[in-house]
Amino acid sequence: MRYPKFLSENGVIGFAAPSFGCNIEPYYTAFGNAQEKFKRLGHSLDIGPNCYAGEGIGISNTPEKCGQELTDYYCSEANNVLISCGGGELMCEILEHLDLERIGTAAPKWYMGYSDNTNFTFLLPTLWDTASIYAPCAAAFGMEPWHASIQDAYDLLKGRKLSFRGYPLWEKESLKSEENPLEPYHATEASKIRCYTEGKENPLSTEEASFEFSGRLIGGCMDILVNLLGTSFDRVPAFLERYREDGFIWFMESCDLNVFAIRRAIWQMQHAGWFKYVKGFLVGRPLCFGQEMMGLDQYRAVTDLLSVYQVPIVMDVDLGHLPPMVPMVCGALGSVRITGNQYEISYLLK
């Protein structure tokens, strides 16, 4: 696995918009404030041509222009790390317009984003053996003040921190709006993970529960993962064989999927062989949190199928569309320690 250089004290932060740009509120103002905050931290900026664009369908610009921008800015020596402006809907359509050979032979660079950006954060390790960061997009860095998770994402980019713990509260309903674009996370709900071991929910009390598992981290947004599955960009089987000795921790979360769609996604990945050599699962709170349909909830949607692997399944972790989120290094070796209701994820870059 190739690991990029971390952001230096006066390093240049690049921005690209392969999915949505920051052309409307609250993202426009938030992105502008993020830039000012990064400048105050001593960084220069390299802003891509699509960052404020809104001409595309589900993305910032045409697939051709988005593919060109991502290729150019990832391969450019003018910036040291690259942060996506935002998530969106149809980043998949830019993939055939990427210069795959040029990206694969470029010096590795940290690319950070989540949601629709799974189209790149997942492909970097599986196609090019290059680690990436599944974490908030650029506009989130404009909030005032920074939530601890935003500071964690920045500290990871800087290489200051490689071990992270879950956060005590999460946001069920955001207060961020066009009128309040710099509003921080409205974290009001107490975080509580649910652990399943040996195919059933762990019966131990929160004071007694303690276990650890490790493997190479891979995953992202399920909406995007199942869309990539079976395409020419699906090189997962070969990736799994290359790192089979490490085993894998799959981290997953969902945006638009209801509980039945989540279950279908799990079934599809399972029957495609993606969970071969799995050592554990980390599942974030889905955007449909609390939904139940015909007796199926967000937990059984996952655990009924994944219990066959007899590995730890940790649910409702800080990951994805209901913030905050622990920054995940996709492609890195990871160790997960569960102690009661607390979890810690540590990365080993080898």
From TrEMBL:
Limits of the LD-carboxypeptidase C-terminal domain: 214-333
Any single Pfam family the record assigns to this protein: Peptidase_S66
Keywords: Carboxypeptidase, Hydrolase, Protease, Serine protease
Domain LD-carboxypeptidase N-terminal: 13-134
BP term (GO), one: proteolysis
GO MF assignments: carboxypeptidase activity; serine-type peptidase activity
InterPro entries: Carboxypeptidase_A_C_sf, Class_I_gatase-like, LdcA_N, Peptidase_S66_N, Peptidase_S66C, S66_fam
Protein family per UniProt: Belongs to the peptidase S66 family.
Protein name: LD-carboxypeptidase
